[in-house]
Amino acid sequence: MSVPYAKLPGWAEYGLIPLVNLAVAFLISGLVVLIVGESPLEAAYHMVNGAFGRGEYIGFTLYYTTTFIFTGLAVAVAFHCGLFNIGGEGQAYIGGIGVVLACLAFDRTLPWYLVFPIAIVGAAFFGALWAMIPGWLQAKRGSHIVITTIMFNFIAASLMNYLLNRVFKPMGSMSLETRTFDAGGQLPKLDWLMSIFGLSVGSAPFNISFLLALLAAFGVWVLIWRTRLGYEMRTMGHSPAAARYAGIKEAKIIVIAMMISGGLAGMMALNPIMGEQFRMQLDFVQGAGFVGIAVALMGRSHPAGIIPAALLFGMLYQGGAEISFEMPSISRDMIVIIQGLVILFAGALEHMFRPAITRVILGLSPKTRDAAVTKGA
Amino acid sequence: MSELAIELKGIDKSFGLVHANRNINLKVRKGTIHGIIGENGAGKSTLMSILYGFYQADRGDIVIDGKTIKIRDPNAAIAAGIGMVHQHFMLVENFTVLENIMLGAEESQILNAGITKARAELKRLEKEYALEVDPDAVIEELPVGIQQRVEILKALYRKADILILDEPTGVLTPAEADHLFRILGQLKDEGKTVLLITHKLREIMAITDEVSVMRRGEMVATRTTKETSVEELAELMVGRRVLLRVEKGEAKPADVKLSVKNLTVRDSRGVTMVEDVSFDIRAGEIVGIAGVAGNGQSELLEAISGIRRATSGTVLLNGREIDVTGNADPADLRRRGLAHVPEDRHHVGLVLKFEESENAILGYHDDAKYRRGMLLDVDAIRADAEAKIAAYDIRPPNPRLKTANFSGGNQQKIVLAREMERNPDVLIIGQPTRGVDVGAIEFIHKRIIEMRDQGKAVLLVSVELDEIRALSDRILVMFAGRVVGERAPDATEGELGLLMAGVEGRKEAAE
């Protein structure tokens, strides 16, 4: 027997509850800092200052945010179809191939604004390809997507290791990376955007792929809530039996949803490769695929939630680096603890504070209370 | 000793702010059968869960046998002499009867001594109450009626004096239900008290001594059964007068619209679910399929509507074959004039997390009128939903409300509106009123008759025999996957009951 909860107004559902969960996560993180023997207040100061204190810091924060928007959207799209795509890491990694091929081929002949669209298509194509295989295996063979996507992360890592070693590495170079791209393979920074707010981007790699990420977020919203494909994906995700009843082709939708998801993950590669390093290095994804899972979870798989969640994790990454720099007894691993706590409270323990909050809010508003009662139990 | 077995005083229970039980007072006299009726969501189950210790009341007292007690968990309820037979049996399917009865009352780590004792006690109980069961039979091999008997024995083994039965006849044939009532009568004669929760008024009239009616979380009335009537109880339940009989004229059957020939369906394990079923349905008639749940009706509906692949046989829709053994596509069948109201609206007919308007296009979302270029035309979809809400009086009239927040009857109306408003040639309806309140049942039945009178061919499957008899122009009875007989709607309940139990059918087949 399920215990029914009355429905909360939107601001509480999507605003207050996540904030309370977040606050608790930070509170406990503070306790951990205290146990290490440092001042939580000082750590909090360095965190916030390191993330937003200067234009350059904000630039770094938004650079990470860009990455996490892509991987967060990737997880969310699959999730709407009832698929848990753990393979964002590998799909982003393989997506790098598309970016690199475009850049190596055209960086010396074409301007960035022509190379960029080719790279976008390439990144999405390779990411989608890498997600299509587990999708197909799930749809046709019933191989569980969680298992196959995890395995494909390892396959991707090995494959890229091979490609960087034997294919992409310039002759005579010792390090595992491609050559550095010329101007055509370098995305412009968004210093004009920062200067509107009177800030300077400094050395931060805050680049135009941020705008692409925002565009992708809008695109995902349209896809999920305004297209037939999105409608079919959501039906599948909520109830496969209802989807079958409605005549929705299960196998087709699973493969398409995974390809869109993989394509979004692959587009993440644009940000570090064309926006920061101007070359592809070994392991350039650096766990962003996994952070995407947390971002999607926190953002309730809705683009409007994913963007702030990505910003939060961007802040944790950038501010966290600053903490470990300013307070040597706190290592970078601390950030992993905070992330873990955020995921724990925003995801796993999402309902912990819900009953209490529901009681308080609905208790204050007689109109919603009557509506709740007529529903009965 | 007290005259009353149970007395509830001012029981109040809220979930969040959903007020499930309000100030409930109830007196149940010892040695009686006391019925509790009410629509879905009236709070019957919540009240019984409080009595059995699943939930704690926010306020109020429970007095058992003259003593005010706190029931913190089911163990406390059992200690107080309360036993419960749940709607969905709480039995371990691969255990024997004896093992199930002992479960939770083993008394020691080593089972041997307990088994001997339990066996002896079980023998005694079986004798005393005429509840014959083979103690060594495995549960999953027993028919549901017997499984229910095991549940009752389980409660008696725990020395229950008060037995709560939650919708006990939903899974039984009429004959099995009669047997159950005889058992309950016997329990009453032995001095046990029985609380019977049901929404079937006929059962209440047949076996209870007193009946209490719940509505919207409140106990609205208690009557002596002899002094009340079905009409009065229905009115108390709904809060207004209800038409219980369905008005319908002569059927005027025309051309065959749906023709099923030698349809056989096996499941993935190769077990035969539907075997060699053939029938025709003509325009302007309702063909009802009666049968105890689980005798192949669900699989038959799924095969015809293209959801489940049939093993062999043919189905003709408007004279054209449906590829039921291959790739029948539900979307294609819809376009060809087949509408389907599925048995399980929660998992199949609706997506409960969707807005009402999104469910109003499920299966028809391909339609050009819901599209604008590449996108869905949300305005058109909502306008369409609003029109259906008005036509079918769906409440609350809000197309943007999450479907889970509608009551069972209104959810069913959402499905009916979607399927009926398409003006199909053939309408397949499974369990049209399961979990639907009395007021909505009246409306749904009227609509089904209207569809027939407009010249649609209607295939109706229901486990409610009354419903089948009231609506159908012809009745087919299914047992163990086969159609074991066809009867006119004026066939007696006993006659249909024997067919449903597979007794008559075997004879008919042999002759």
Compact summary:
With 377 residues, chain A is mainly α.
Record the SSE blueprint.
The complex is a heterodimer of chains A (377) and B (511).
Chain A lengths: L9 H27 L3 H13 L2 H26 L7 H19 L5 H30 L3 H24 L22 H6 L12 H18 L1 H11 L1 H6 L4 H18 L2 H8 L10 H11 L4 H24 L6 H16 L5 H11 L1 H10 L2
Chain B lengths: L3 E12 L2 E12 L3 E6 L5 H8 L7 E6 L2 E3 L4 H6 L2 E4 L11 H6 L8 H19 L14 H14 L4 E5 L7 H16 L3 E6 L2 H7 L2 E6 L2 E7 L5 H9 L17 E11 L5 E11 L2 E6 L6 H8 L7 E6 L2 E3 L7 H6 L2 E4 L3 H5 L6 H4 L11 E2 L2 E2 L1 H14 L16 H13 L5 E5 L7 H16 L3 E5 L3 H7 L2 E6 L2 E6 L5 H8 L2 H8 L1
Parallel strand pairs in B: 3-8, 3-9, 6-7, 7-8, 13-20, 13-21, 16-19, 19-20
Antiparallel strand pairs in B: 1-2, 1-4, 4-5, 9-10, 11-12, 11-14, 14-15, 17-18, 21-22
Helix pairs in contact in B: 14-15
Protein name (chain A): ABC transporter permease
Pfam families (chain A): BPD_transp_2
Subcellular location (chain A): Cell membrane
Classify the beta-strand content of chain B into a percent band. 25-35%
- The portion of residues forming beta strands of chain A comes to under 5%
Major β-sheet profile of chain A: none
* Overall shape of chain B: globular
Flag low-confidence runs of chain A.
1-5, 367-377
Low-confidence stretches of chain B: none
Number of domains of chain B: 2
Contiguous helical run count of chain B: 18
Instruction: Tell me, rounded to a whole number, the average pLDDT of chain B.
Output: 89
Strand order of the largest sheet of chain B: 6-7-8-3-9-10
Q: State the distance separating the first and last CA atoms of chain B.
A: 60 Å
Going by helix content, strand content and strand pairing, the class of chain B is: alpha/beta
Radius of gyration computed on alpha carbons of chain A: 22 Å
Secondary structure: helix percent of chain B = 25-40%
The helix content of chain A, as a percent range, equals over 70%
Protein name (chain A): ABC transporter permease
GO molecular function, one term (chain A): transmembrane transporter activity
Organism (chain A): Shinella sumterensis
GO cellular component, one term (chain A): plasma membrane
